[in-house]
Automatic annotation (TrEMBL):
Residues 24-57, 97-118 are annotated as: Disordered. InterPro entries: Polysacc_lyase_14, TAT_signal. Residues 1-29 form the signal peptide. This is Polysaccharide lyase 14 domain-containing protein. Keywords: Signal. Transmembrane segments: none annotated. The lineage of its organism: Bacteria, Pseudomonadati, Pseudomonadota, Gammaproteobacteria, Oceanospirillales. Residues 96-288 form the Polysaccharide lyase domain.
Length: 295
């Protein structure tokens, strides 16, 4: 979508006022400081980088776990066997298949309750060694979805994909997932070396909101920092509209850490009963695309 589109201009003008206030009080990412935020002033990354992979579940597989493993080229997964079903193109309405992830009543984080949601890693060959990359996918929360306090959504990762309170030291890698929060507020939820939080940094909360009952396109661009410099970037577009740019990120302290692929990760929580879904619920995922510079 062109940045000259009237819809984008309206959103950009509204976001300018909001983000100017954020940026005026923010500072370089360091201990005790808020991240430096603005909004993307460039075309969506899917329009600037060539596509390198378009994985989708294999509907011919014998079950959902096999469909995910064969379609996304992964052997690392959890919750897929019990909480995922494959959707055909008719069920998604997108002319391609997708995944339905179930969150059973009373579940939250995998470390807190019986497993609700699911996770896996997909590392397309086209991203090998990437220091810039772009991910797009679509998510659809069932009509009337109860967001409770929040939950995790997929994003890009590198290295060991730290999460769950694990240490981020610049050598172990990073994870840049998304979250939904109360009333469907969206945010970036990140584990990076420049954060100061024990359980991941909440960035840009409320700059967009997820509706229920309809598809939403999430677009994420990462630009890794030069080791020794705080010059990393993260950008987000929602349905083609620029909503968030974060600068001065330290993803790594060594060139060995690069962007590996998708950290598919979705569940309620947080830990504790206040995070748990009160009823059986589900969300759908489809149209995964990876993009990266050709050189």
């Amino acid at each position: 979508m062109s940045m000259e589109h009237p819809r984008n201009r309206r959103h950009a003008l509204a976001l300018t006022a909001l983000m100017t206030g954020l940026a005026s009080t923010s500072a370089p990412a360091q201990e005790g400081k808020e991240p430096t935020l603005s909004y993307p002033r460039v075309e969506p990354c899917s329009e600037r980088y060539p596509p390198v992979a378009t994985p989708q579940p294999d509907l011919a597989a014998e079950d959902a776990q096999a469909g995910v493993r064969q379609g996304f080229g992964t052997t690392r997964d959890w919750g897929v066997e019990d909480n995922v079903e494959l959707l055909d193109a008719g069920a998604t309405g997108l002319e391609e298949p997708g995944l339905r992830v179930h969150y059973p009543e009373g579940t939250s984080s995998p470390g807190d309750t019986e497993q609700g949601g699911a996770g896996f890693y997909a590392d397309p060959a086209g991203l090998a060694g990437a220091e810039r990359a772009c991910l797009t996918y679509q998510v659809r929360f069932e009509p009337g979805f109860d967001f409770v306090k929040g939950g995790k959504l997929p994003g890009l990762y590198g290295g060991e994909a730290p999460s769950g309170g694990e240490e981020v030291d610049g050598e172990s890698g990073f994870s840049m997932r998304f979250m939904w929060r109360e009333a469907g507020q969206g945010e970036l939820y990140e584990y990076v070396a420049s954060q100061d939080e024990e359980f991941g940094a909440s960035v840009g909360r409320g700059l967009w909101s997820f509706p229920t009952g309809e598809w939403v396109t999430i677009e994420q661009e990462l630009v890794l920092n030069t080791p020794g410099e705080a010059d990393g970037l993260a950008r987000v577009w929602i349905n083609g509209v620029p909503v968030l740019e974060q600068s001065e990120i330290v993803y790594r302290t060594t060139e060995e850490v690069t962007i590996d692929g998708l950290m598919f990760s979705t569940f309620f929580g947080g830990n504790g009963k206040e995070w748990r879904t009160p009823v059986d619920q589900h969300a759908d995922f489809a149209a995964f695309r990876f993009y990266a510079p050709s050189s």
